[in-house]
UniProtKB/TrEMBL annotation:
One of its GO terms (molecular function) is nucleotide binding. InterPro entries: Gfo/Idh/MocA-like_OxRdtase_N, NAD(P)-bd_dom_sf. This is Dehydrogenase. It holds the Pfam family GFO_IDH_MocA. SUPFAM superfamilies: NAD(P)-binding Rossmann-fold domains (SSF51735). It comes from the Bacteria. Residues 48-147 form the Gfo/Idh/MocA-like oxidoreductase N-terminal domain.
């Protein structure tokens, strides 16, 4: 049965804030009882299944905002959301607790900041920003108001990545990581940079200058497009290719006491005891990062403690953005860029 949404205009924001406070109080008093997290989706229409993914993770998606009011109505009906918003003010003054933002920058930055200022928890579906200062303000406002801010990264939901992160200490001091077939583009690079931080530690220097690379190629068909120096001592060499996928790339992580090779679901660990192979689980969804981020948001809101977010936050996106900017400067000006 098709939902016929109501087109909602702006209402009294004071009433909406009071509703959110009552909702928080009711959730605290409910104890172990489950009170659904009421959310709205802001979307550009590029993904039509987002609302259903969010619902599967435990969010009650009750409204949708699109670039135009007629699009809001049509897409809300498609998403089975009972309300469509005429504009951002209408969304911010609705009786919701969280907003999921599926837009490209700079729109995503603006809406995230306005949402946090209105007392809403924030989930950013895309790991991208065009205004780091606005994003820092989102984190500051959210943390002052005890609001959760979560960013969807696919690498945070990749079972193989978790397994490797737990196994890294067995390798001893890290020396090198190579990646063949990494996803290209801003979002693909963001995933690799986030993953590097989790496995190899903070990045100290970045090179995207072909003339400055410590190695030109990883294989005959895999030129190095990004090099990183990390606090663990590991040098990271990355080959990016158009159409590459995180779970289809080949990762080789070397340490003084062993080596790990990741190819899709297969993780091979070689050390002085021999070679062991582990097959990690299949991803839970075609959009695992979004599912993981939505679960994290629901968990933090239900527990009433944004500090319980274990996944990526705005701070992680800011770190990745700083590294991407350093890579851009390296490519344009040449040489390594220290951080």
């Amino acid at each position: 049965m098709t939902t016929v949404p109501e087109l909602v205009g702006p209402r009294d924001p004071v009433v909406a804030r009071a509703w959110r406070e009552r909702r928080r109080t009711a959730r605290r008093l409910a104890g172990s009882g489950r009170t659904p997290v009421v959310a709205a989706l802001v979307t550009d229409g590029s993904e039509r299944a987002t609302a259903s993914v969010l619902r599967e993770a435990g969010l009650d998606v009750v409204g949708l905002l699109a670039p135009e009011p007629l699009e809001s109505l049509a897409w809300a009906a498609d998403a089975e959301a009972p309300r469509a918003y005429s504009d951002l003010a209408a969304l911010l003054s609705d009786e919701i607790e969280a907003v999921c933002i599926e837009l490209a920058p700079p729109g995503s930055d603006l809406i995230a900041r306005r949402a946090a200022e209105a007392g809403l928890h924030v989930l950013m579906v895309r790991a991208a920003t065009g205004d780091p200062a606005a994003l820092r303000a989102v984190a500051d406002v959210a943390e002052d108001a005890d609001l959760a801010h979560v960013v969807a990264f696919d690498d945070r939901a990749w079972p193989a990545a978790r397994h490797v992160q737990a196994s890294v200490p067995t390798l001893g001091r890290l020396t090198q990581m190579t990646v063949v077939g990494a996803p290209s583009g801003p979002l693909g690079r963001a995933e690799i940079l986030d993953l590097t931080g989790r496995w190899c530690g903070d990045v100290l220097a970045v090179c995207a200058d072909p003339e400055g690379m410590p190695a030109r190629r990883l294989t005959a068909a895999a030129p190095v497009t990004l090099a990183l120096l990390t606090t663990s001592g590991a040098t990271v060499l990355v080959h990016e290719r158009m159409g590459g996928k995180l779970a289809e790339a080949t990762f080789t992580l070397c340490g003084e006491q062993g080596r790990i090779v990741v190819e899709g679901r297969r993780v091979r660990l070689a050390d002085h005891t021999g070679v062991r192979t582990v097959w990690t689980p299949e991803p839970v969804s075609e959009r695992p990062g979004l599912v993981e981020a939505a679960y994290e948001l629901v968990r933090a809101v239900e527990l009433g403690d944004p500090a319980m977010v274990r996944g990526a936050t705005v701070h992680d996106l800011l770190t990745v953005t700083r590294l991407r900017e350093a890579a851009r400067r390296s490519r344009d000006d040449g040489g390594w860029v220290e951080l």
